[in-house]
Design a protein that fits this description.
By secondary structure, this protein is of the alpha/beta class. The chain has a single domain, classed as 3-Layer(aba) Sandwich (Rossmann fold), CATH 3.40.50. Helices cover about 40% and strands about 10% of the residues. A three-stranded parallel sheet has the order 2-1-3. Helix 1 links the parallel strand 1 and strand 2. The chain is globular. It binds 4-nitrophenyl phosphate. The site of 4-nitrophenyl phosphate (4NP) has 10 residues, from loops.
């Protein structure tokens, strides 16, 4: 990544209809609230089953309840374009991370979502954002909370360079 290149973030999960669209919407919301301008943000899935769809209705519902807009239309990760275009590749779990690395993502640009949460700063490996797809609605509330903490950490990381 070049020092002069503005940050650009691609949030990545499996289907691109639950976790990464929530991460994208929450990050955009917090970046605006904290005066972080000019960051390009997108999300994608390692799978293509839901390409062209909006977020899962349970993700939409929790976002609406908590005042966050989700602009995402699902798409699959594009290789190699996304690896050239984005300075930060942010997988939701270890499986998404392994998949990105297998596809040839530059390891220095890949960091797990929850590694940006200051609560996990001391851990050798950050915990996963669990896949809520096959669970109930309460799973989406828990995922929202995890993403909010991690996105706040990412906003601070980009604002302060920490
Ligand atoms: P996501 O959740 O990776 O957070 O978007 C999933 C969505 C769909 C499927 C799996 C996970 N699926 O198997 O269709």
């Amino acid at each position: 990544m070049s020092a002069t290149r503005p940050p650009s973030i691609l949030f990545v999960c499996l289907g691109n209809i639950c976790r990464s669209p929530l991460a994208e919407g929450i990050f955009l919301h917090l970046a605006e609230r904290h005066g972080l301008d000019g960051v390009v943000v997108d999300s994608a899935g390692t799978g293509d089953w839901h390409a062209g769809e909006g977020p899962d209705r349970r993700a939409m519902a929790v976002a609406r309840r908590r005042g966050v807009h989700l602009p995402s239309i699902a798409r699959q990760v594009r290789v190699p374009e996304d690896f050239d275009r984005f300075t930060h590749l942010v997988p939701m779990d270890a499986s998404n991370m392994a998949h990105l690395l297998d596809l040839g993502a530059p390891p220095g640009r890949v960091r797990l979502m929850r590694a940006y949460d200051p609560a996990h700063a001391g851990l050798p490996v950050a915990p996963d954002v669990p896949d809520p797809y096959y669970g109930g609605d309460d799973g989406f509330d828990r995922v929202f909370d995890m993403l909010e903490s991690a996105c706040l950490g990412l906003v601070e990381h980009l604002r302060t360079g920490s």
